[in-house]
Write a sequence for this structure.
């Protein structure tokens, strides 16, 4: 069990596009996706971004820990996507560091607001997922298997055209 995962507040969202500026603010277009379109010519989803917002108490300033993002299929298993060596699970892990900018905010404000970690997982070229598939993003912190944060979404194609005659 991880004290980091135990005390973390984590928010997940999907958006059409997201970026972070040098001050750490996130700029989002089209947040709140639950259904992602599918491009039949390319065989991939539309562009989208997964936004992960982690907040921790001030005591974790400077702490480094792994953050893992995994895509699960409808059965709850790791979703398989084409990779350089054939089909492979879509799972990414990176070490992140808790930072509280006490020089800019001041100790009292930093103590109150705590540590903030903002991660954007941008899938700008889409992902080759199954049309009409149901998927879940799973986020885990610090290798803690007991705590996870989930975000469900679906992949759908364009609506059928009109029928004449």
């Amino acid at each position: 069990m991880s004290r980091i995962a135990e005390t973390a507040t984590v928010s997940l969202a999907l958006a059409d596009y997201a970026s972070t500026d040098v001050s750490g603010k996130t700029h989002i277009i089209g947040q709140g996706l639950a259904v992602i379109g599918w491009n039949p010519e390319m065989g991939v989803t539309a562009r989208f971004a997964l936004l992960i917002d982690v907040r921790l108490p001030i005591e974790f300033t400077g702490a480094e820990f792994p953050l893992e993002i995994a895509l699960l299929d409808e059965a709850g298993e790791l979703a398989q996507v084409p990779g350089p060596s054939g089909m492979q699970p879509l799972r990414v892990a990176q070490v992140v560091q808790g930072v509280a900018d006490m020089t800019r905010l001041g100790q009292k404000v930093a103590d109150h607001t705590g540590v903030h970690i903002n991660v954007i997982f941008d899938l700008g070229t889409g992902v080759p997922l199954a049309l009409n598939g149901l998927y879940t993003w799973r986020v885990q912190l610090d290798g803690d298997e007991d705590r996870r944060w989930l975000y469900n979404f679906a992949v759908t194609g364009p609506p059928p055209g009109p029928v004449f005659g």
Q: What stands out?
A: The helical segments are 3-7, 102-105, 107-113. DSSP finds three helices and 13 strands in the chain. The longest helix spans residues 107-113. The radius of gyration is 18 Å.
